[in-house]
Every structure is written in C-alpha cells, then in structure tokens.
Amino acid sequence: MAHSFKFSRRQLLISVGGIGATALLAACGGATTTPTSAPAPSAAASMAPSSAPSSSAAPSAAASAAPAGATVAPTPAPAQQAGQLKTVARNRTLIHGITGTQLTDYNTFNPFLPGIASSTGYPFSFEPAYYYNAYNKGSSCGPAGMKCEDGFIPWLAESYEYNSDFTQLTIKYRKGVEWSDGKPFTARDVAYTVNMLKDNAPSLKWSVDMRTWIKEATAPDELTARFVLNNPNPRFMLQFFSYHFDIGIEIMPEHIWKDQDPKTFTFLDLAKGWPVTTGPWKMVLSSPQQRIYDRRDDWWGKKTGFRELPAPERIIVLPGTDETKMVQMVINNEADMTIDLRPNNMKTVLAQNPKITTWTGKNSPYGYRDWWPIGLGFNCQKEPYNDPEIRWAINYSINRPQLVEFGYQGAGDTTLLPFPKFPALEKYTDTVKDVAAPIGTFDNAKTAEIMQRKGYAKDGQGFWAKGGQRFSMVIYSQILFQDIVPILVEQLRRGGFDASQKQVIGTEFSQQVYTGNIDAFVLGHGGSVRDPYFTLRLYHSRYSLPTGERATYPYRWKNEQYDQLVDQIGSTSENDPKLGELFRTAMGIWIKELPDIGLVQWFHRIPTNTTYWTGWPSEENPYINSAYWHRTSPLWIHSIKAAQ
User: Fold this and answer.
1) pTM higher than 0.85, yes or no?
2) Which CATH fold topology does 130-255 show?
C-alpha cells in the first residue's frame, strides 16, 4: 500500500523574500545610459546572482566539457574599454540581468574554452547557418518576414543537402556576409573552424564531436562548405550548424585564428577590434561588473537587404547577485529581462509592475517548457548506486506531484523520462508510457521491500543501514533548484535514506558532478528537441570515464546493448520507421536499469518588461523561445520594437 504524507506550506515553500527599491544602474542614469569608464563597478553591477541560467549551468548535449587536464580559461586580465563610450538613451538600451557573483569570463571571448558562460554575449554575437525553433506553429515558425520550413530558419546559409546515405553534408552560404572587421565571411572560415576543433580534441568544447564525426571538412568555393563524415549522421546539420537552445558551433574568422593557439587564445582585445564576429554588435566594455555592446550599423544583413538592424542600440549585461535583486531590477525597470524566476517571485513581479509579462502573460505557469527536464542523477559506478535495484528503491520514495505542488506552487509539470514534453518527441515517448509508468509510483513499501532484500534494516532513527553503515546520500544542487530539492531531500529521508543537500555555487558544482566525486545530483538534460537520439546519447558508455576524470556527461553508466542501439539510432533518419522500434527497445533497457530519475519538466519563467520594448515572443506568437543566454536570442533581439 502506498504511503502518503503531507507537508505544510510553512515547511516547504521556499521564498526568496522581500522586494525593495534598488539603486539605479550606473549604466542607465535617467534617460541615458552612460557606462562606467573603467572596470569600476556600477551601482547595480555589484548585484550578482548565484547560479548559471538553465542549461548554461552545465555542459549541454553536444557542447562537451573538456576532460581533466584540459586547458581552462586564461588568467584574469584587466577590464577593457573601447575608447570613450557614447551616450545611449535608456529607451534604446536592452538590459539583461544575469547570474554569478561577477562576470567570470569577462577576460576572454573564446567560446571553446571549458567553463565559459553562455550568458554574457556569445549567443547574440555569433550567427549560424540556420536557426531551429522547437516551438514552431505554422506561420509562427520564425520572426515575421523570415523564411521557415519545418522549424528551420535560414540565416548565414541559403540551403543544405545530404547525400543519399547521410555520410556527406553540403551547406551553401549566403553571398555578402562580412565579419565585423570588414573581411568577407566565407566557407573557408567554416572548414577552418571544424578542422581546428578536430585537431584540438579533447581540449575544446565540440572538439570530441568533430573528431568523432569529421573525416574531411573542405570549402570547394567561397560559398560552399562540405563535410565528409566517418559514419552516417542524418542529424549533423541540426546538431552543429542549426542554433537551437544553447547548441551549435560558433564559427571563427580564419584570418585571425590561424596564427593563434586556440587552447589559450582569448580573442578579446578591444583596441584591435576583437572579438570579430558576423553579428550586429561590437563589444565596447568588458569587466567583471558589466559587458556592454553597441550596435554596428554597418552590419552585413542591413547592407545586403537581408534584414533591418535590431531596434536596440546598446545591450548591457549585468550580474544581479541573487533572485531578490533580479526581482528588484525588473520591477524598477532597471532590467528588461532576467534569468528565469521561481513562481513565487514571478507572481511578485507581475503584481508590482503592470508592464511585466511572460510567455503565458499573467497566467500560470508563467513560462514555457524548456528542453532541460530535471532529474536526480548518480555516479552509477559508485556503490551502492551502481545497483539498478537501489536506484529503483530511491525512485519509489519520490512523490513528484508534491514537488510541483509545493515547490512550484502548482505552476509546473512532472516528468518520468529525461525528455522535454515537445510534440515532436511525444510521438516517441508515448509509445513507452506503459513501460515507464512504474517510475511514477510513490510507494515506500516498495522501497522497503528492495532495501530489506538487499540486506538493509532501519536503525533507531528510521534510516536504512547495513553492517553498521547508514545509507547516506549527499545530493549536489544549485540555487536554481532551491524550491524543489529541500522537498526531495525530505521525501527521501522519510523513505529511510539519510539524504542531505549540498547547494554549491559556480564551478564547484560542475567540477564535482562531472568528475563523479559525488553520490547524487540534480541537473537538467540538454538533449533532444526533435527526435530522441540526443537524449539517449547522454547515457552512452563512451562518456563513462573513471571516477575522478572529468566526463562529458555525468552518469557513468554502461550497457553494451544500449550503446549498440543508440549507435543505430544515430545513423537512422527520423523518417525511417525503424527509429521508433529502436527507441522502444533502447528505452526498455534504460527504464529497467534507471540510471537517472526524472523529476519535473523545467520551465523558463522569464519576465519580459514592456516599458521600453515590445514584441517579445510568447505562447500566442512563439517565433522563438525568449532565453537570452540561448543561441537563438538574435531572433527576438531582431524582432522586439521600441515602446517609446
């Protein structure tokens, strides 16, 4: 019989608390924005939140973290400023409030170095061959006036084509694209970047992927890039050259990078005009307290008639200390958007500033489902977590509806599997609903049956123990999960596990989790958005390094049959009927062994301020998701309009 229990809201609601006035940003004085002229902190620049946004908190599906011994970000250098900064009106300035005690990557713009954040300008500075919109709805597939086919939105490229067996991809790029230093962007830059990453594996992000897949990358002419692959890969274009969420390879200018060591090159020298990108933004200040970008009116897109310039003339990226400060910033119109907020804080924002809206307007859940469903993971090499039955025993002590009811105040959704609930994926996940259903069973009697069979008995305090050793479990977590992890810990303790939470900030979380020096952890899954392959590959044993070595993905689970199925899925087109059968077989293995326990769907509850800017993406007009730290952010930056 299932054991049920209730928590009081006083016990469980995690509130970030009081809202008060905050000083005006030094970078936004009155009607104009006049940034500080040196690295000295601005009034609000000292407000820095404590964690990375969503899927930037850890390496995503393909942006693999480098293993132990790989090059890390360079030694801090003085802040940089590009001469005297011009004055820009507040109502022409777009301001992001982000996380972190300061901007930790202010001294580099090399996106391939391990540990680099994605929230301080990389997404809107670089441009892809294509964008992909997982939220497409017919005519709302992309921004107004943009071509879109099945979610794919062409940008630097005009077309692409595979050969018949998906072992070769050819991309045709657009004529007239230029780097910000005026040099032409060509297919040679694309081939150079891919070969550079391949040659520097495993030290750089994406380098293992390029070494795995690329046999040859060439540029037959200025506008044509051709990739010969080691094995069939019908998803190569989507995964690496179509920006979606925080996935996609940044292309570098060969004329600058060819003479540099990519493992140490910072690509940041404002006096030289670095970074050089194809986007319509020029960095003019970079310090631990703020990054500022001014619009380049000579952007290639405007010159060629491809697209008008974005309406904002300046973008300021500021830390916000903690969620309380970010709430203050957006209420006081000191930020136009922040990272996703907890539901109770979103309610506060909506109540105190009528100009604030969200993806779902003023209504719950105040956001959209991200591609980052949250789960409880383990180092599956470590005893006793290497035993699938123990993982199932832990699972039976979890009451997911309570996580949503109390943690998210009902503004959310549970999950059993590590897939986001996107229509394109549900046609696969619906086929394993019956097999997956037991994962959702909350029943401490089932927990007890397994634990007793494994030789455990409860001690005097009600915790499982064996041989005088109590079953203790430390769950590594981040501030992003402050509303659900305390509830999860209490549920596990009531199930007999001596569970506790270790909430960590910054690099300590990824260092401990990805080296396996932990028992358990709560983390999102940056994987599939269109078909199941990219989530399935998170658990492939090629990523299961020995404990102590930094791995790409942290689960450290091995199953040879599962690996073979995932490899087959990777070379099977989404249009091939065999894909569904392979998926069901692979998930049968995964569900039986349960290397990772699904908890809740992740929602981006992002406040969007209409005081200065309108036309934000929304449920009614989902032309792209609204996370500014995702590589798709240029689509909404190019689409918002000045309100004044």
Assistant:
1) no
2) Dipeptide-binding Protein; domain 1 (3.90.76)
Q: Are strands 472-477 and 498-503 parallel, antiparallel or unpaired?
A: parallel
The rounded distance, in Å, linking the Cα atoms of 11 and 35 is: 44
Burial 536-569 (b: 16+ CB within 10 A, else e): bbbbbeebbbeeeebbbbbbbbbbeebbebbeeb
Is CATH 3.10.105.10 the right assignment for the domain spanning 373-601? yes
Give the C-alpha separation, 315 to 294, whole Å.
6
Phi, psi of 586 (to 5 degrees): -65, -40
- Beta partners for residue 32, in sequence order: 89
Amino acid 58: pLDDT:
32
**Helix (H/G/I), strand (E/B), else coil: 464:** strand
The residue type of 33 is T
CA 390/CA 384 separation, integer angstroms: 7
pLDDT computed for residue 551 by the predictor: 86
The DSSP symbol for 536 reads: H
**Could you give the dihedral angle defined by the CA atoms of residues 110, 114, 116 and 122, in that order, rounded to the nearest 10 degrees?**
50
CA dist 139 and 633 (Å) reads 19
Q: Cα Rg for the chain, rounded, in angstroms?
A: 24
Q: Is residue 316 within 8 Å of 28, Cβ to Cβ? A: yes
Residue that the structure tokens 């996580």 belong to: 403
Residue 409 neighbours by CB under 8 Å, 6+ apart: 13, 343, 344, 347
Helix, strand or coil, per DSSP, at residue 324 = helix
| CA 154 – CA 146 distance, rounded (Å) | 8
Report pLDDT digits (tens) over 298-334: 999 999 999 999 999 999 998 866 788 889 999 999 9
Residue 476, classed as helix, strand or coil, is strand
Nearest to 288 by CA among 94, 84, 47, 110: 47
CA 183 – CA 552 distance, rounded (Å): 35
Measured CA to CA in angstroms, residue 358 lies from 95, 261, 625 at distances of: 16, 43, 11
| Closest of 412, 410, 417, 402 to residue 492, by C-alpha | 402
Query: Residue 232, Cβ neighbours under 10 Å: how many?
Result: 17
Number of other residues whose CB lies within 10 A of the CB of residue 87: 11
Q: Supply the DSSP symbol for 403.
A: I
Distances (CA, A) of 267 to 108, 205, 276: 6, 16, 8
- For residue range 446-492, list pLDDT tens digits in order: 999 999 999 999 999 999 999 999 999 999 998 889 899 999 999 99
For the four alpha carbons of 93, 99, 105 and 109, in that order, the dihedral sign comes to negative
User: What mean pLDDT, rounded, does the chain reach?
Assistant: 86
CB 375, CB 520: distance < 8 Å: no
Tell me the CA distances in angstroms from 367 to 384, 481, 605, 623, one per residue in order.
38, 16, 4, 14
Torsion sign, CA atoms 299, 304, 306, 312: positive
Q: Where are the domains of the chain?
A: 130-255, 373-601
Query: In the prediction, which pLDDT does 136 show?
Result: 75
Residues 495-534 pLDDT 10s: 999 999 999 877 788 889 999 999 999 999 989 999 999 9
* Alpha carbon separation from 587 to 280, 374, 439, 538 (Å, rounded): 44, 18, 13, 13
